[in-house]
Amino acid sequence: MKTSFVDGRFVEAGVDAAILENRNPSCPDDVVDRFARADAALTKTAIDAAVRASRAWRTSNPQLRADVLDRIGTDILARREELAELLAREEGKIVREALGEVDRAGRSFKFYAQEALRANGEKYDSVRAGVGIDVFTQPVGVVGIISPWNFPMAIPAWKIAPALCFGNAVVFKPAELVPSSAWALADIISRSGLPAGVFNMLIGPGRTVGDTILRSPGIDAITFTGSEATGRQVAQIAAERLVRVQLEMGGKNPLVVLDDADLDTAVEAAVQGSFYSTGQRCTASSRVIVTAGIHDAFVERLVARTEALRVGDARSADTEIGPVVDGTQLEQNLDYVRIGQEEGARLACGGQYLANAAGAHYFSPAVFVDVQPHMRVYREEIFGPVLCVLKVGGYEDALAAAEDTPFGLSAGIVTQSLKHAEDFKRRSSAGMVMVNLATAGVDYHVPFGGNRASSLGPREQGTYARQFFTRVKTTYQAA
């Protein structure tokens, strides 16, 4: 039985420890691992360890931090096939996508290994004679990291790596649906030469482990990725404690397809953005807004392409769409299909549980047409492979429809018009805009994040991560 990682070691499981079974969504009878759940007491122990360790780590040699991060990245990349197989088995992501996620995790650590050595600081002349000014950044302290289940290697990596890079200690709580990937990452970190207590990983429920992290006076900053509803609760607690917070939450991302779009490009962008990773991405394009001139041809091609997608075991080489992560998410997908039909949308294909002997959580990707903007299936984040096609008049109508959402994470447009592409990039309120690409799919060395109800706080990833994981200090000195 596996356990949490606290103060430089994997702790022993108590005889009365609650047990978490991690099951394969492609074959629910397959138990990937068993874990002893952490409780509030162990969480407090981890936070105390991080507080102690942060005192030395915050002033550690940047070369030490660079070497540690580089070793972690190298080890992740060296074990990419093993880690991808594990990810596919516990989360249901097909192996090809799992390999890409593992690569991204490893590259994130290597990026921040270099960032640790990057010179930072500014020197100013004062407006007063004989006074010099230095402006530089310092670590925040102890960072609480709460990550989701849909990217169990990449998202923890792009939070943990910059936190360590800039001299912070970490208390990390992964989602309980994907503890094995988190444990594997902790195992790699444990071998990197990182001092005890600087990194801690707790496997346990949000109501105890997560809540203890959020409310502890030892936690100086909180970075969270998950649902909008939970994110609002996190923000409220952080505001009450007056600690900095970074939230990445939901999305109901639009893909606009104009009359002049290349049809093949448009269909592939819609399929990749809506259905890959089983639609379980906050950047998924669950709203496809199509102008009237190309609408019918696009829908016909989209439905044919969707029906041809191969749904199956995430570890099979010919699978294009893996299982839904668990039975709860499967039921939510089916509920939304029912809701969409009751509201008057037409289900053009998919939207069914694919019964199988293994009891896998297979769901056929769904396409809704004849959709109206007020429908719940069009407005609410489903977090599954359910796509809604909205027919509009021209470009201005399409832009207005794209903006008609409380979210603002990612948006895309498919067009051959440079004028419309440039206009969309500037007028879209989304934090990330794609042209002739799927709305999902981003690089690790540039900012990630959105606006409105999708994100709160400084951007993640790239050099912009420094804004969250450090504090700015201004010093004055007489000559």
List the helices and strands and how they pair.
Layout: E1 5-6, E2 9-10, E3 19-24, E4 27-36, H1 40-57, H2 62-78, H3 80-91, H4 95-115, E5 122-125, E6 131-139, E7 142-146, H5 154-165, E8 169-173, H6 179-190, E9 199-201, H7 206-215, E10 221-225, H8 228-241, E11 244-248, E12 254-257, H9 263-275, E13 287-291, H10 292-307, H11 327-343, E14 346-349, E15 366-369, H12 376-379, E16 386-392, H13 395-403, E17 407-408, E18 410-414, H14 418-427, E19 432-435, E20 451-452, E21 455-456, H15 466-469, E22 470-478
Helix pairs in contact: 1-7, 2-4, 3-4, 3-6, 4-5, 9-10
Please give the alpha-carbon distance between the first and last residues. 62 Å
Q: Mind telling me the CATH superfamily name of the largest domain?
A: Aldehyde Dehydrogenase, Chain A, domain 1
CATH class descriptor name of the largest domain = Alpha Beta
Strand content bin: 15-25%
Derived from helix and strand composition plus strand pairing, the structural class reads: alpha/beta
In total, how many beta strands? Answer: 22
CA-based gyration radius: 23 Å
Helix amount? 25-40%
User: Which architecture of the largest domain does the CATH hierarchy give at level 2?
Assistant: 3-Layer(aba) Sandwich
Tally of individual helices: 15
**Overall form:** globular
Question: Assembly type of the shown chains?
Answer: single chain
What's the number of structural domains?
2
